[in-house]
């Protein structure tokens, strides 16, 4: 009998503690459903978050924070239960943390984090005209959540030969950039395509129709220099004549 009591005591204590935490706690329910503190959603969708006080303190005032900054709530949306809505979800909502806690005691609260998925902005086609010997820059927006797993470039349907065709290729996680500093029609004219592998959907690709035009004469420099000289001389003459007048009236 005494043995039984000893066994039960820790369990009872545990239950009591559990009830105490529950009684003074708040919880967040969400649509879409929160899982392990994270709400999974997509760009442009709606997330609604519903914070409730557990048990006894049902008429306690609640506050909401987004990344630590207070969210203003309408009257009647703070007592015992408080709802906020994120609509439409934006890029900057990705990773944002929403916290709900008692106004009277900030340690009694809980948080959820949003994971906003968005695909890369790759679609359509672009006409690009570039002069021989000029710089050609092609840009593809590959910013996505989750990140794209790979980006590839083709020219007339076959993989772009970076070294042989004098290209440089960079990728900073936002933009994939294909550049060549000295355009040659035989090497660089044609149809380019950049495509990105996004783990959730796709394919995502963008086309560029690049035409190489004759080199034209650069902006003529000599007339500009002559013009600048005339302007400077005129200014100088104006100052000199005024200086004469100033000197004259000082005498
Ligand atoms: C806030 O709540 C915690 C946990 O319930 C409690 O330990 C603490 O004493 C409370 N603080 C105030 C100022 O009431
Ligand atoms: C790509 O195809 C176009 C059209 O057929 C052609 O004019 C161009 O020379 C080709 N470009 C390369 C680099 O082969």
The first-to-last residue Cα distance is: 124 Å
Please state the second-level CATH architecture of the largest domain: Sandwich
Record the strand order, biggest sheet. 2-3-9-8-5-6
CATH topology name of the largest domain: Immunoglobulin-like
Main β-sheet, in a few words?
A: 6 strands, mixed
Question: Could you say which small molecules are bound to this protein?
Answer: 2-acetamido-2-deoxy-beta-D-glucopyranose
Work out the number of β strands: 17
Level-1 CATH class name of the largest domain: Mainly Beta
Shape: elongated
Domain count: 2
Helix content: 10-25%
Q: Residue-averaged pLDDT, rounded?
A: 85
Alpha-carbon Rg, integer: 34 Å
Supply the helix-strand structural class: alpha+beta
Number of continuous helical runs? 3
Any idea what the CATH superfamily of the largest domain is called? Immunoglobulins
Strand content: 35-45%
> What is the chain-wise order of helices and strands?
HEEEEEEEEEEEEEEEHEEH
**Poorly predicted sequence stretches spanning 5 or more consecutive residues:** 1-23
């Amino acid at each position: 009998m005494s043995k039984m009591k000893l066994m039960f005591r820790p369990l009872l204590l545990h239950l009591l503690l559990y009830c105490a935490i529950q009684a003074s706690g708040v919880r967040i329910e969400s649509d879409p459903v929160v899982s392990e503190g994270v709400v999974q959603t997509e760009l442009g969708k709606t997330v609604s978050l519903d914070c409730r006080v557990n048990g006894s303190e049902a008429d306690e005032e609640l506050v909401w924070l987004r990344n630590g900054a207070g969210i203003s709530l309408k009257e009647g949306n703070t007592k015992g239960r408080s709802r906020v809505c994120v609509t439409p979800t934006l890029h900057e909502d990705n990773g944002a943390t929403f916290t709900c806690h008692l106004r009277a005691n900030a340690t009694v609260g809980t948080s959820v984090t949003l994971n906003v998925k968005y695909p890369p902005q790759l679609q359509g086609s672009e006409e690009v005209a570039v002069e021989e010997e000029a710089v050609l820059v092609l840009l593809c927006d590959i910013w996505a959540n989750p990140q794209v797993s790979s980006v590839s470039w083709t020219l007339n349907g076959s993989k772009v030969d970076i070294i042989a065709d004098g290209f440089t290729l960079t990728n900073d996680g936002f933009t994939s950039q294909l550049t060549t500093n000295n355009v040659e029609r035989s090497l660089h004219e044609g149809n380019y395509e950049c495509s990105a592998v996004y783990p959730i959907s796709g394919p995502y690709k963008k086309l560029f129709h690049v035409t190489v035009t004759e080199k034209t004469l650069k902006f003529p420099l000599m007339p500009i220099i002559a013009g600048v000289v005339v302007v400077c001389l005129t200014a100088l003459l104006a100052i000199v004549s005024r200086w004469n007048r100033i000197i004259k009236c000082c005498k």
